[in-house]
Amino acid sequence: MAIEGRGSGYWKANLRVIWICLIIWALVSYGFGIIFRPLISGIKIGGTDLGFWFAQQGSILVFIVLIFFYAWRMNKLDREHGVDE
């Protein structure tokens, strides 16, 4: 029973991290790059508008940051729940 409780907590924490990463990814990729682009097009960054920047570079950079965040957070969760390598 104790093992199931620990596994359940680990899985819930894992899913929470996944959902947070997916929400951030969707907001940046679809939200800022497509849906909210007209609202942020007046802001200039790197010689172009912010919406275009998110569509072309920003979403890729955020995705790379999310990969490193996910790896760091999962390593921490693994250690906390005793399932690290």
From TrEMBL:
It comes from Paracoccus fistulariae. Keywords: Membrane, Transmembrane, Transmembrane helix. It comes from the Bacteria. It holds the Pfam family DUF4212. This is DUF4212 domain-containing protein. The chain crosses the membrane at residues 17-40, 52-72. The keyword Metal-binding does not apply. Residues 9-84 form the Sodium symporter small subunit domain. Coiled coil: none annotated.
